[in-house]
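Q: Sequence in, structure out?
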Amino acid sequence: MSARLQAIKWERPHLTILNQLALPHSSEYIEISDACAGHYAISSMQTRGAPAIAIVAALSLAAELSTMHFDTSASARTHIHTQLDYLATSRPTAVNLFDAITKLKHAVDTTITENGQVVRDTYVQMAERMLDADVKDNMAIGEHGAQLIGNDKVRVLTHCNTGTLATAGYGTALGIVRSLHAQGSLDRVYFTETRPYNQGARLTAYELLTEEIPAQLVCDSAVSALLRSDPMIRAIIVGADRVAANGDTANKIGTYQLAITARYHGCQFIVAAPTTSVDLHTKSGADI
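A: Exactly. Output:
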């Protein structure tokens, strides 16, 4: 993970996040001390991105639990379940959040003990493992994606924000861009404005400038013309909010037209997402 930019900082029992509502004009970190603060950070979009939402939710409760004492395992489990159900309401459409909540509940429910502190510690350790696993998964996505694109000097295009700001670290689609840059294969990355919220112009621009990765902003409506005029563009790389059982992918508005123009111009179209974004209970994109 980059030492320059870190959107989620955890040092038990302290959780701080980069306030993305203040970007790119100010790099402001705020402390998340409990599940209530975590819920607000997610629902107000102080933090965003499907993987990051799950990690912030998990760690916000870990921060809260770290200062609490439970006399029995039953009281610990009841409190954890109640707070996780509350955190689930912060972003009802985030499949990664519900995946994390299911795993966290299972971890505490299957811990055989009458000691409430053991249940508490089991939860905190599981949340910490999720943080580490997300970073490792993202770095693996970056490595495999870079191999798929190749070792030649290339240009790529990305949409929305899928980097350190949207994950526990490194990023999914932007993780591939980072890997290409690290291996010396990236000539330039184009990134879209991503209207109407401008995550590309605000957040991806912030990340790429911070990392000193060669980049150029492009209007959402200019991508097709760009693909026609720049033969060095090898791939369009996007993330995913949710992947249905049949492979249909839901992502930021504008992704569909990018897929169409990529196919028309014979350009690779790559969806970069961890398995936690796959929703096997949703049959197709029509059900999302």
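The chain has a mean pLDDT of 95.
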